[in-house]
Structures are given as structure tokens and as C-alpha cells.
């Protein structure tokens, strides 16, 4: 027989009703459920639930899944220490080579501009005619000096004659670098006399520029006849009196009147189709002979050639064009190593050139050291002309003292062994850079022939001759013919272009990184994401540590403060209660 217990069988597990989290299972949905754990326990549970890998484990996982080549070999399971060390050496060598190649590419990219041959057969008819300046070798006219000596004799209170002042005025040769006079006290006495008796109504001191202008031979005394493109023209209308490093001279095409494009037949090519000038040098009008003079352009951009009387001189011009594209303006001048014509408008009349910049730098240095400006330099190179004075005979000692400095100009201080003292004494002009676009006129293959029949070259187209001009006669010893012409029908046209644009540099560096180290843009993004993620986890851990520290100490302080307040209140209540006395018999 079976008992009741056996019929019932084993006891079934008790079933428990599981209450869902939906709103209809909650008796009071809006009621806040009671907190079953303390706040600190909840923070510990949250930290244990959100606990991440350590940095070493995260780095190992990152290297195993990184898309860069072979970095997983460093942490791959089963690799020996020797093999891991071998892969570490390989990666270090690859990174070293990569850095060297990338640095070389960057240094090469800093040379932003490259010169290319744009047009090897550019028509010379499109090339502007250069400016031509004619200066007389005789810088001071003898006739003008005699007139000036007579003026000084009339002003002299000691009544010294003109012959005395004519001999004293030989000191004016020092303005042109001829220092044959050793008696400086005599020169200073002459300058003191000029400052007192030869000043204009608006001048405080002797104006050397105005006086030397009157003593220089005039253009009408030098120019005999002029022809351009086979056609004669009036010399006095096309030539303009200008100032140069040699003093006052006569300049043709100063304002660029012949710089526009011309028809093909007016290309000024050939001996007879260029600029033909017949010049005169009167030997009897020469005041002094600068026998030691030599071509000294000083600041570049000028080609100087001497023309001898009694000869026909041929000056073939071979121009070359250098142009920089306007896209190069976004590059800094110190990187592209040149300046455009409108980048430094100050101190320049129309456009920037390297020659003007050097001259302006030299003018500022001369004025700062000697407190005067030579008459050959424009006054606007040193700013406001108010209160400025031109150098006189009393300043020549200072000018000779620093002559070496002003004849040696540098634009950068590159170390050169053996030239340390010269670099220190030279004039430093860091703001002067070569012109980005310019036309270089080279005079090569110049020659001279004897002038046998000058009369046919003396077609003077001037309608009237000034009283100071003599009849020229047929004496070829005073005449000289100059032929300036283009020697080529076509020239070379060079352009400076940007060597590497940003996308080309990016592509080059990307190829180098991909070939040497297997880098890619995706791998770089992975690396940046890993670094940002680790920094974020470190920041969160620091914030949680601060929160733990703050919340752990706050309840203790509040409980201690509560107990202290309770003791104070109990003491106060005991003091307020009336004292009960128990009297025993």
C-alpha cells in the first residue's frame, strides 16, 4: 500500500509572481520607489558595471586591430621575445626613415617657386624699349664755373677776383668722388663762405643740388641728333633731364612712352632701326677729368657703357623676360624670395624695384650716419623733405669714412668663413628682395668703329640752336655716334610658377608614408580615436575619484555637526530648567 505522502509525490517548487516594470503593474506609478541601496553602493555597482580595460590591455587590443602594417606582430600571442624585438627594430627603423623623407619633402616644398621656359620665341616687338640715360663725362662745365666764380667775386666783401674763386671751386670735384684735394681747412673755409653768401631765399644752408645742377652741362650741349626706327625726332622733346648716381643726366623713355606694344615693322631690330644718337663732348669745356672713374651702378639694375669720341659705338641689347604668376602673392615674400611691384608703395614713385630699394636703404643709412643726403639721391627716399639738407663739402669727410659700408650691400646674413668683418661692416637691407617680374636688358657683343663721315649723322632736327651751342663742323674728335638696338628678333620668356600646391604636397607625403610604414588615412583616424578615447577615460576616472572623495566625507561631517548641535541644545535646555532642591530632615 502506498501512503498519502507517496501518492502526493515530491514537493513542487513554489512559484513566485514576477511583477513587470510596466506602468500598469505598479500600484502607484508616480510614487518614487524606496531606495534599497545606499548611494555609495550604487556608485560602486555603476563603476563595476562600467569598468573598462586597463591601458596595457587597451593598447594590446589596439595594436592587434590597427590597420597599419605588422604592428600586431609586437603583441601577437605565441611570439617569442627575440621575434618581438626584431619587429620593434624594424618599426623604429621604418619610422626614422619616414621622418627623414617627410622632412626632406617639407624642406623642398619651402622653395615654392620654380622657373620654367614659357615661350622660347617671344617676339621682340612686344618687348618695351629700355630707358637710355646719357651722361657727359665732363660733370662740370668750365663756362658755367667761370660764370659762378664771377658771381661769388661780386658777393665777396673782401673783393677777391673771379680767378681766385675759379681755383677754389675745383673742390667741387669731391662731389663726384675725386678726392685730389688734401687741404680740408681750405675746403671748409670755402664752404663757410658759400653758406653765408650763396644761399637762396628759402634755404638756410648752401643748396648743393641746385648749384651743381647749374654747373652740369645741359642736354642741349650734349645731344646733336636723334633717330628711332629710321625716323628722326626732336631730342629736346623726348629726352628729359633726370638725376642718377652720376649726377644730372639726360634720359630717353623715362616715363615709358615707348613701352607699349608696337607693330612688327617697328620692332627696333637691327643696327639702323634702333636708337641712333649723335653726341658731342667739347674738350674746351671740360673743367676736370675723372681719370679714375669707372662704371659703378652700385644698386644693380643698370648697365653702364662708356662711349669714346671719334667712334661709332654699337650696343646690341638682348632682353629676357621673367614673370611671376599672380597666384604667388599668397606666399610670403621671404618664402618666395621676391616682391611684386606694388607690395611696398612707400618711398617709391611708381613701382617697386630692387635697385630703388637698395638706393632707399643706402639713403637712410647715409642720413642717419652723416645727417645729410647726397644730391644724387631723391629726397623722398628718407621721408618728409622738411628740414632735410643735402650734403656739402663739410660732410664729405663723413661720407668718405663710411664709403666701404655703402658700396657693400647684403640682404641676408649668411655665414661665410673669412668674411665675418666684411659682413659686419656691410650695409644690411633685409627688406630688399629681387623683383618678381622684370625685364633684363643685357648688352653683349658691344663694338666700336672709327667715325669717318660724321656729317650725315648730324641731322639736327631742332628748329633753333641755343646760344651756348656752337656749330659742330666736321671735327669727328668731338662727336660720337651710339647705336642701341635689339640684337634678336625673338627672345626667351621665363615664368615663375608655384612648384607644389597643397594637394601635391599632401599626395607626396601620403605616398611616402604608405610605402615605408604602411600608413593610411584610416589608420591615422584609428590612432587619433584611440588617443582621444584614453584621454576621455582618464578624465572620467579623475572626475569620479573627486566625486567619491567629496561624497565620502560629506555625511561624516554632517553627522558630527548634528551630534555637536544636539549636545549644545541639550546643554541649553538644562540651563533653562528650574533647579529642584531636595531637603532632608
UniProtKB/TrEMBL annotation:
Origin organism lineage: Eukaryota, Metazoa, Ecdysozoa, Arthropoda, Hexapoda
Membrane-spanning ranges: 85-106, 505-531
Basic residues: compositionally biased ranges: 556-566
Subcellular location: Membrane
Organism field: Drosophila hydei (Fruit fly)
Main location: membrane
Gene field: LOC111596407
Topology class, membrane: Multi-pass membrane protein
Protein name according to UniProt: Acid-sensing ion channel 5
Family statement drawn from the similarity comment of this UniProt entry: Belongs to the amiloride-sensitive sodium channel (TC 1.A.6) family.
A Pfam family per the record: ASC
Amino acid at each position: 500500500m502506498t501512503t498519502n505522502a507517496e501518492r502526493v509525490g515530491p514537493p513542487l517548487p513554489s512559484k513566485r509572481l514576477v511583477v513587470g516594470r510596466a506602468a500598469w503593474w505598479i500600484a502607484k506609478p508616480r510614487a518614487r520607489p524606496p531606495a534599497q541601496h545606499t548611494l555609495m553602493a550604487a556608485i560602486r555597482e555603476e563603476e563595476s558595471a562600467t569598468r573598462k580595460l586597463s591601458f596595457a590591455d587597451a593598447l594590446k587590443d589596439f595594436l592587434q586591430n590597427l590597420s597599419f602594417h605588422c604592428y600586431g606582430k609586437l603583441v601577437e600571442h605565441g611570439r617569442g621575445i627575440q621575434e618581438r624585438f626584431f619587429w620593434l627594430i624594424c618599426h623604429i627603423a621604418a619610422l626614422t626613415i619616414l621622418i627623414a623623407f617627410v622632412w626632406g619633402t617639407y624642406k623642398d616644398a619651402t622653395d615654392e617657386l620654380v622657373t620654367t621656359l614659357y615661350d622660347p620665341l617671344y617676339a621682340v616687338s612686344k618687348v618695351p624699349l629700355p630707358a637710355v640715360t646719357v651722361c657727359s663725362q665732363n660733370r662740370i662745365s668750365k663756362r658755367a664755373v667761370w660764370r659762378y666764380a664771377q658771381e661769388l667775386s661780386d658777393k665777396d666783401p673782401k673783393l677777391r677776383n673771379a680767378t681766385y674763386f675759379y681755383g677754389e671751386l675745383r673742390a667741387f670735384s669731391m662731389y663726384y668722388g675725386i678726392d685730389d684735394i688734401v687741404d680740408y681747412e681750405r675746403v671748409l673755409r670755402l664752404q663757410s663762405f658759400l653758406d653765408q653768401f650763396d644761399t637762396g631765399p628759402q634755404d638756410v644752408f648752401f643748396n648743393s643740388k641746385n648749384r651743381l645742377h647749374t654747373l652740369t652741362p645741359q642736354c642741349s650741349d650734349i645731344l646733336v641728333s636723334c633717330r628711332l626706327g629710321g625716323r628722326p625726332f626732336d631730342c629736346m622733346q623726348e629726352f628729359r633731364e633726370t638725376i642718377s648716381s652720376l649726377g644730372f643726366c639726360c634720359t630717353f623713355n623715362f616715363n615709358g612712352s615707348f613701352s607699349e606694344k608696337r607693330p612688327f615693322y617697328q620692332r627696333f631690330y637691327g643696327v639702323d632701326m634702333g636708337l641712333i644718337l649723335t653726341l658731342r663732348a667739347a674738350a674746351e669745356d671740360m673743367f676736370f677729368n675723372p681719370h679714375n672713374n669707372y662704371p659703378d651702378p652700385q644698386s644693380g639694375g643698370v648697365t653702364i657703357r662708356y662711349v669714346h669720341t671719334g667712334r661709332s659705338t654699337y650696343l646690341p641689347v638682348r632682353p629676357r623676360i621673367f614673370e611671376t604668376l599672380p597666384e604667388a602673392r599668397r606666399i610670403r615674400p621671404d618664402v618666395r624670395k621676391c616682391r611684386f611691384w606694388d607690395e611696398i608703395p612707400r618711398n617709391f614713385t611708381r613701382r617697386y624695384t630692387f635697385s630703388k630699394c637698395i638706393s632707399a636703404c643706402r639713403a637712410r643709412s647715409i642720413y642717419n650716419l652723416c645727417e645729410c643726403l647726397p644730391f644724387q639721391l631723391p629726397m623722398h627716399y628718407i621721408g618728409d623733405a622738411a628740414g632735410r639738407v643735402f650734403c656739402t663739402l663739410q660732410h664729405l669727410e663723413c661720407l668718405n669714412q663710411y664709403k666701404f659700408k655703402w658700396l657693400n650691400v647684403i640682404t641676408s646674413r649668411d655665414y661665410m668663413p673669412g668674411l665675418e668683418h666684411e659682413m659686419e661692416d656691410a650695409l644690411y637691407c633685409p627688406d630688399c628682395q629681387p623683383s618678381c617680374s622684370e625685364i633684363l636688358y643685357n648688352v653683349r657683343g658691344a663694338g666700336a668703329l672709327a667715325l669717318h663721315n660724321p656729317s650725315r649723322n648730324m641731322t639736327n632736327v631742332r628748329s633753333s640752336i641755343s646760344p651756348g651751342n656752337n656749330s659742330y663742323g666736321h671735327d669727328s674728335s668731338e662727336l660720337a655716334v651710339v647705336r642701341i638696338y635689339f640684337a634678336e628678333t625673338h627672345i626667351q620668356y621665363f615664368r615663375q610658377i608655384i612648384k607644389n600646391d597643397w594637394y601635391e604636397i599632401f599626395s607626396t607625403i601620403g605616398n611616402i608614408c604608405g610605402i615605408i610604414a604602411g600608413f593610411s588615412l584610416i589608420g591615422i583616424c584609428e590612432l587619433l580615436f584611440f588617443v582621444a578615447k584614453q584621454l576621455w577615460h582618464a578624465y572620467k576616472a579623475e572626475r569620479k575619484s573627486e566625486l567619491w572623495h567629496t561624497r565620502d566625507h560629506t555625511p561624516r561631517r554632517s553627522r558630527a555637526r548634528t551630534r555637536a548641535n544636539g549636545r549644545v541644545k541639550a546643554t541649553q535646555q538644562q540651563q533653562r530648567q528650574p533647579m529642584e532642591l531636595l531637603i532632608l530632615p
